[in-house]
Amino acid sequence: MDGFWIVDTEGRLLEVNASYCRMSGYSREELLQMRVSDIEVIETPDAVIRHMKKVMAKGEDRFETRHRRKDGRILDMEVSVQYRPAEHGRMVSFIRDITEMKRQEEDIRLRSLVLDQIHDQVTITDLDGVITYMNQTQVKKFGRPKQQLLGRITTIYGEDPQHGATQREILEKTLSDGSWRGEVVRAAGKRFG
What we know:
It is a single chain. This protein is of the alpha+beta class. The protein has two domains: about 5-100, PAS domain (Beta-Lactamase, 2-Layer Sandwich); about 120-175. About 35% of the residues lie in helices and about 25% in strands. The strands form two sheets. The chain has a five-stranded antiparallel beta sheet, with helices on both faces. A two-stranded antiparallel sheet has the order 6-7. A hairpin with a 5-residue loop joins strand 6 (about 125) and strand 7 (about 130-135). The protein is elongated. About 15% of the residues are buried.
């Protein structure tokens, strides 16, 4: 699944695998006529050479960057590179396409920004009732830092089954129907502990 390169100290691609060809849209023959700076988006050609010198001095590096596909699309990449002086000064790189992961992270970040702007209290849990997200309105209601709330079980809310749904009922309804909408009433005098 990962792309693979062997590069010389001038940044010329000496070997590439089929996986990187698929990622980039270039044929093996096309890539072997190119340099790293022909594909690299973030670093200028001079910056690529400086980065390579840094790798040669350290022996290895791991970083994120962006590559331009043959069709012009930009891919987010995670690169792990090792310098091998004993092998005629070659650099061996493993390249992973993280474009989809970055897109999902940005989507989550934007959704969190939206959820933090609404006045309703929002809590997201995993299937065991462990809190994975709370919007700012909910955090303010508890009066505690978010870090103290995430990872806790929803029973920290307390329950008043005579006046609202229990955490178990909410979970079961969500699992069976795909969603739940209703009211949870905290037990009188329930304190966060």
